Amino acid sequence: MPEAIAFAEYGPPEVLEAVTRPRPEPGPGQVLVAVRAAGVNPLDWKLRGGAMAAVMPLALPHVPGLELAGTVDALGEGVEGLTVGEEVFGKARGAYAAYALAEADQLVRRPEDLDPVPAAGVAVAAEAAYRALDELGLTEGETLLVHGAAGAVGSMAAQFARARGARVLGTASAPAQDRVRELGAEAVVYGEGVAERLRSAAPEGVDAVLDTSGADVLGLSVALAGGTGRVLSLVDPVAAEQHGVRFSAGTPDEDRTAAALEQVLVLHRAGTLALPVPVTLPLAEAAEAHRWGERGGSGGKLLLLVG
Predict the structure, then answer these.
(1) Which of 19, 30, 148, 259 is 20 to 30 A from 187, comparing alpha carbons?
(2) Per-residue pLDDT tens over the stretch 26-60
(3) Which key words are in the record (predicted)?
């Protein structure tokens, strides 16, 4: 098992390689986690390929990975509420590794009855979904339309919105309709005729729209919401600007990880948490995981098994 996977130059998946590195030491407010599994996210391969180099330059070599599940191995100065040996999950930088550093407030304890493998792939999607609903100001009794409701972010948004007492309409492919219904949403097949199907489901329109699909739906979304004020995209900044709607990039001062992970635990305790099916590969096959992700159609949440 490699100690970490890194890339020393931008490029295709083949630039990912096993590396040996010293065990990191946690600084003030940090936690060293012995990684059990790490999530694979679109940002990972966008960073590796250089698509984000202009806005998110990296110090190379760089170890990818934004989320994990594992065991607390060491605590930095000032960390309270966690102890060595506890099982945790959440956000961390450099998670494609045997050990990774995380800010203490980006982790939560993992309940024994929550499988660590799917838990490793929760944090990024949960944070994005929670942030989006906050920015949309969604409240009880309102109707939210989620484009791409069967995806990782869309499915978390649907569950969080239902927990707020909102009605949720969720667009997804025909094979994913049952998945959307399992989330407590009303499923609508996307594609040709989706505008008519949505207007039939919500003849008075919707209160807010969240696009997690990037499928050229923002014009329709503005029409259904009666304006641009409560339409938000998490995936398409260019189209968002064209249609005059908000795009949320998740800057550090906007981060909602702590609140999002607490909401995940609330849903888990209630027995209603639905997580994507994990698709796993060993850490050594990180390049293959990136190939799968870039091709699409993996059928679930990509995860790398580490420890």
Answers:
(1) 259
(2) 999 999 999 999 999 999 999 999 998 998 899 99
(3) NADP
Helix (H) or strand (E) holding 31: strand 30-39
Helix axes 257-270, 152-163, angle to 10 degrees: 70
User: In whole angstroms, what separates CA 294 from the centre of its chain?
Assistant: 16
Q: What is the model's pTM?
A: 0.94
Looking at the DSSP bridge assignments, the partners of residue 89 are: 69, 108
Which helix H or strand E contains 237, and what residues bound it? helix 237-243
Distance CA 171, CA 191 (A): 9
| Residue found under tokens 């909401």 | 263
Tokens of 253: 């001062």
Just give the CATH number of 125-247: 3.40.50.720
Tokens of 307: 């420890």
Residue from 134, 144, 88 nearest 261 by CA: 88
User: Any idea where the domains of the chain sit in the sequence?
Assistant: 4-122+275-305, 125-247
